[in-house]
Amino acid sequence: MILVAIVAELLEEYTLLLTRVLEQLFRDAPFPRRMRFLILRRLPYASSSSSLSSTTPRPIRTTS
């Protein structure tokens, strides 16, 4: 049972690392912005704030 927990933790760490590498790869890839957004959005464990902020434009704030 302990071995299962250790393997599960290792797989989670591996998935996190792989996600970070793929985020970096696709962020710099020469794909259209919409395609990069769709790819990055579907990555598991993707940091939504960093991946979304770099691929989508920020809304314009108007003061009234």
What's the short story on this structure?
The chain is an all-alpha fold and 64 residues long. The chain has helices at 2-28, 33-41, 48-55.
Helices, strands, pairings?
Elements: H1 2-28, H2 33-41, H3 48-55
What does this structure look like?
With 64 residues, the protein is mainly alpha-helical. It has a domain at 1-41. The protein has three helices and no strands. The model is unreliable at 49-58 (pLDDT under 50).
Structural class label: mainly alpha
- Summarize the main sheet: none
Radius of gyration: 16 Å
End-to-end span in angstroms?
A: 61 Å
What sequence of helices (H) and strands (E) makes up the elements? HHH
Number of strands: 0
Helix share bin: 55-70%
The shape, in one word, is elongated
Query: Please, how many helices?
Result: 3
Mean pLDDT: 76
Query: Strand percentage, roughly?
Result: under 5%
The low-confidence parts are 49-58
Keywords:
64 residues; mainly alpha; 3 helices; 69% helix
